[in-house]
Amino acid sequence: MDTIGILGAGAMGSGIAQVAAAAGHNVIICDNYTLALSKASKNIQASLKKMVEKGRISEADAYSLFSRIKFTDHTSDFRNCPLIIEAIVEDVEQKQICFKSMEAVVAEDAILASNTSSLSIAAMGASLKHPERIIGIHFFNPAQLMRLVEIIPAVQTDPAVVQKARDIVDGWGKTTVLAKDTPGFIVNRVARPYYGEALRILEEGIADLSTIDWAMREVGGFRMGPFELMDFIGNDINYAVTEIVFENFYYDPRYKPSFTQKRLVDAHYFGQKSQRGFYDYRDGAVKPEPKKDPALGQEIVNRILAMLINEAAEALYLNVATRDDIDMAMTNGVNYPKGLLAWADEIGIETVVQRMDSLYVEYLDDRYRCSRLLRKMLRENKTFY
Ligand SMILES: NC(=O)c1ccc[n+]([C@@H]2O[C@H](COP(=O)([O-])OP(=O)(O)OC[C@H]3O[C@@H](n4cnc5c(N)ncnc54)[C@H](O)[C@@H]3O)[C@@H](O)[C@H]2O)c1
Predict the structure, then answer these.
(1) CA-CA distance, 83 to 107, in Å (whole number)?
(2) 3-state secondary structure of 30
(3) Parts of the chain belonging to CATH 3.40.50.720
(4) Neighbouring C-beta atoms of residue 380, cutoff 10 Å
(5) How many whole angstroms from 116 Cα to the centroid of ligand 1?
(6) Beta strands in 146-197 (DSSP E)
(7) Taking the complete model, does pTM exceed 0.85, yes or no?
């Protein structure tokens, strides 16, 4: 089987290396920081050990999987790789420099892919002599466990490259969805209101954070509440993605970041990893009790869910992805209990439009404008499915 190249041996690069090696490929993982390579080696071994303990893989298979991964600090080792996935820091200029130097060593038809969460794939292609080989292949964290992968062609990408990349990743047992090269692609765009609207509800004093988390979990059926999830992802990471999406949408108020979260980032209250975030994770800290008021819980869920559905409808309306891919992305990428468009049908398009319009009338803020698609569907008495 072909040897796959991975640039960047951080959290994502080491996870993707494990996925490719599990599918039988030899993998070359490269990082310019040698300590990152030894850390990646340890992390992959620890992850494999866990899988052996859980009986998901035999000890012999874990050993041969690990032996297929080579660690290096020279990109020239990628020379025979037909596919290289870049997973270095989220900085477009650094990524462009890396792609340019990798292009000088690989074959003319090698595919160069980026695992970026939110940057423009077209901008990365612009650094190449053969930009038709650039593509986004966006895994979710942890890559070895999360099934979803977004495939993002840029304006320059050759359709044959899209098909080849998709076939390879599908062959790794992942569920691929196709997304347009727009800020946040599918998941990191459609999920923004889960955080943003929860933060607005908190800032307005409508409910405290543990009540909002309780409502989204117990009333809404989501696996984690928004504040628990932001603390889990890391407020630094989550805030940075919100900020990039906001800037890249030309400051559309729908994606406006929140001062509350910014101040936590300023204070280095990143969440679980720093023991302080929205919640206190230090020994002996007591988690605040939610106010389990069913009417308040439903009001919170209705507002956040309407905003999520509106975002999903707008992504469909603007051809970011198909209906099925949008629903699949949210259930597989962030474990939502239902696809948002299927959920819209269940609640009724009219109810969603009414919820959006009543928010708009109340706030007179563009943030709450209802997607034209929902309004049109209501007029034509249509459903998503
Ligand atoms: N962490 C997530 O949840 C997540 C999820 C999906 C996508 N992503 C994206 O994946 C990419 C990597 O994220 P991460 O969380 O693994 O980051 P990370 O900080 O854990 O790892 C980045 C690695 O890249 C290395 N690196 C930096 N510049 C390099 C260079 N010029 N050449 C070689 N190696 C270099 C660093 O030494 C580091 O080991 C980013 O683009 C990020 O947006 C992250």
Answers:
(1) 10
(2) strand
(3) 3-178
(4) 8
(5) 9
(6) 148-153, 175-178
(7) yes
- Contacts of residue 268, defined as CB under 8 A and 6 or more positions apart, other chains included, come to 274, 276
Tens-place pLDDT, residues 253-281 = 999 999 999 999 999 999 999 999 999 99
CA dist., res. 133 & res. 160, Å (int)? 9
Where are the domain boundaries for CATH 1.10.1040.50 in the chain?
Answer: 189-379
Cβ of residue 149 lying under 6 Å from some atom of ligand 1: no
Query: What is the residue-averaged pLDDT of the chain?
Result: 97
Question: Is residue 94 lining ligand 1, measured as CB closer than 6 Å?
Answer: yes
CA distances from 222 to 213, 217, 340 (A): 9, 5, 12
Chain Cα centroid distance, residue 79: 30
Residue 176, H or E segment = strand 175-178
Compute, in angstroms, the gap from residue 32 CA to the centroid of ligand 1.
12
CA distance 369 to 348: 18
| Max CA distance (Å), the chain | 63
pLDDT digits 0-9 by tens, 303-337: 999 999 999 999 999 999 999 999 999 999 999 99
Residues 6+ apart with CB under 8 A from 2: 25, 26, 81, 82, 83
What letter represents residue 148's amino acid?
A: L
The pLDDT > 90 percentage for the chain reads 98
Q: Please give the number of the atom of ligand 1 that sits closest to the Cα of 88.
A: 24
CATH number for the region 3-178 comes to 3.40.50.720
pLDDT of residue 90: 87
In this structure, how many other beta carbons lie within 10 angstroms of the beta carbon of residue 179?
A: 26
Which of 16, 34, 88 is the best mutation target for the ligand 1 pocket, counting ligand atoms within 8 Å of the beta carbon and taking the most? 88
Active site residue 14: no
* Residue 65 CB coordination number (10 Å): 20
- DSSP conformation class of 29: E
- CATH class for the domain made up of 189-379: mainly alpha
